[in-house]
Design goal:
With 139 residues, this protein is an alpha+beta fold. It has five helices and six strands, in the order E-H-E-H-E-E-E-H-H-E-H. A hairpin with a 5-residue loop joins strand 3 and strand 4.
Length: 139
């Protein structure tokens, strides 16, 4: 299993929106960055991810699961752009802020800490465990 982080502006697509989609999940569409797209190409069914609110909150607020492998992005006719579908698994009991991640030396190499602009990013297993610990998630 691999781990990921999906960033979204809460005013565009929030954790509550994701929860409302239930087990059907939602297409993670609209990504127009090659590195983020390539990360989605590497995803497998059942991979887990952090749902991160960007902009004002800047915090991991939930856990999601990849529920459909990479496929054409329905928001464009351009064949270069693909996406996965994700479904909500659980809220993060205590949101884990970017500042908390930056303050924890165990997360010094985390992509989120070093490249806050990338919308879909890998998370190592060790980073996954640390962020879950910080947020009180025991899934």
């Amino acid at each position: 299993m691999a781990y990921w982080l999906f960033k979204s502006e809460p005013g565009t697509w929030s954790w509550d929106d994701q929860l409302a989609r239930g087990d059907a999940g939602e297409e993670w569409d609209g990504v127009r960055n090659y590195q983020a797209r390539n990360n989605m190409r590497r995803m497998a069914l059942g991979d887990l991810g952090f749902f991160y609110h960007s902009q004002s909150e800047k915090a991991v607020v939930g856990i999601v699961e990849v529920c459909a492998q990479v496929h054409p992005d329905s928001t464009t006719d351009d064949p270069r752009w693909e996406c996965v579908d994700i479904r909500a698994v659980a809220p993060m009991p205590t949101p884990v802020t970017l500042d908390m991640c930056k303050a924890d030396r165990r997360l010094a190499d985390m992509v989120l800490v070093n490249n806050t602009r990338l919308s879909v990013q890998p998370v190592t297993e060790d980073e996954w465990k640390v962020v879950c610990e910080l947020g009180g998630y025991r899934g």
